[in-house]
Amino acid sequence: ICNACRYCEGFCSVFPAMFAERSFTDSSIIQLANLCHNCRGCYYACQYTPPHEFAINLPAALDEVRYDSWKKFSWPQGFANMFDRSGMIMVVILACSLAFLFWLVNTFIPEEGEGFYAHMSHGFMVMIFLPSFLLPLIATGVSINRYWRYIGGKKMTLTELWKASLEAITLRNLKGGHGDGCNFEDEDRFTKTRSALHKMTFWGFLMCFGSTTAGTILHYAFGLEAPYSWYSLPKLLGVPGGVLLCLGTGGLAWLKTKADPNLGVARIWSSEMAFILLLFSVSATGLLLYAATGTALVEWFLPIHLGTVLTFFLVTPYSKMIHGFYRMAALVKNQTRSG
Predict the structure, then answer these.
(1) What is the mean pLDDT of each run of 10 residues along the chain (339 residues)?
(2) Given this model, what pLDDT does residue 128 score?
(3) What H or E segment, with its residue span, contains residue 128?
(4) What's the gap between Cα 51 and its chain centre?
(5) Which domain holds residue 256?
(6) What gap in Å lies between CA 173 and CA 199, rounded to an integer?
């Protein structure tokens, strides 16, 4: 019906890609689903939505396919199924358990370093976090590789990669094709709120990651150990990045409570909310930890922060975080098609 109607052709990347297809296979439908940013503008523009007898609900249909594709290509798949069934419970139990573990280490294995290292040794944190970062990264790589091969991804050019990256960074597909935003939280009224909050989350996360990377380089390449001064690169990136991440994820959680549940997959609402709140907790506890520097509160905030960060790493391949990797791959594939 959508391929014949073509009313929504300018809304986002989904429809030009859809109209280019002469027939639809499982792989092409999965590609379209991962191109979709779930702005829901097409639903409110469509003349065939309920109460029409066709009862078209494209956002919900693509959301279902998209989420199932993440599980289909995940590795190991059992973890994705577990997160699907009880994501919120998994996040809470994992974060609390890891925070308790870090508290035990902090309490019973005292250190004599400076800053955070006065509570937990650098070697111990590296021993815990390095494999916890690399293993999920490998799992994510396997998942994306499976997806890329399934949709028939081909060798890309730097130009195609650059164009796809610009689409991802600017969130062009949340502009509704007309620049007025999407309909995620206000039904048939266009708004740029969701796009703005996504950008806060995206750039806040990148700045926090950049802060950690800068600290790692300073430590190993230049022999400069934490704690760092407020004008150092780790602080200049980490503090504003944490604020942006807090505002972005807090706003997205609020929007999710206002969105129409019938335009998405209802069963995954709690697991998606769990991921958003986890990201919020990572940034909020990081800011609290920074504010508590030099006080007795550090010994309480540090285990909580480390527990949330480690939980985030571990659930990344099976949580909503994976959507960023899939969407980037879908945008690149779309560029190779149109290019």
Answers:
(1) 85 88 90 92 90 93 95 94 91 96 86 75 88 96 97 92 92 76 78 92 96 93 86 94 97 93 89 95 95 89 95 96 95 83
(2) 93
(3) helix 122-150
(4) 34
(5) 71-338
(6) 13
Decide: 310 and 120 in contact? Cβ < 8 Å: no
> What does the DSSP 8-state code read for residue 317?
G
The answer as to whether 10 is a domain residue is no
Nearest to 279 by CA among 95, 138, 147: 95
Round to whole Å and give the CA distance between 34 and 37. 8
Residue 279 main-chain phi, psi, to 5 deg: -60, -40
- Residue 191 has phi, psi (to 5 degrees) of -150, 145
Opening angle at CA 46, ends 41 and 50, nearest 5: 110
Question: Coil, strand or helix: which one is 155?
Answer: coil
Q: What angle do CA 97, 216, 75 make, to 5 degrees?
A: 50
Closest CA to 302 of 294, 159, 320: 294
| Cα 46 versus chain centre, distance | 29
What is the C-alpha to C-alpha distance for residues 306 and 244, in angstroms, rounded to an integer?
19
Angle at 188 between CA 186 and CA 192, to 5 degrees: 55
Model pTM?
0.91
**Could you give the angle at which helices 58-73 and 26-35 cross, rounded to 10 degrees?**
110
d(CA 240, CA 125): 24
Assigned domain for 311 exists: yes
Assigned domain for 5 exists? no
Write b or e for each residue in 269-304: b if 16 or more Cβ atoms lie within 10 A of its Cβ, otherwise e.
bebbbbbbbbbbbbbbbbbbbbeeeeeeebbbbbbb
The answer to the question of residue 51 being in a domain is no
Rounded CA-CA distance 38/8 in Å is 14
CB 127 within 8 A of CB 320: no
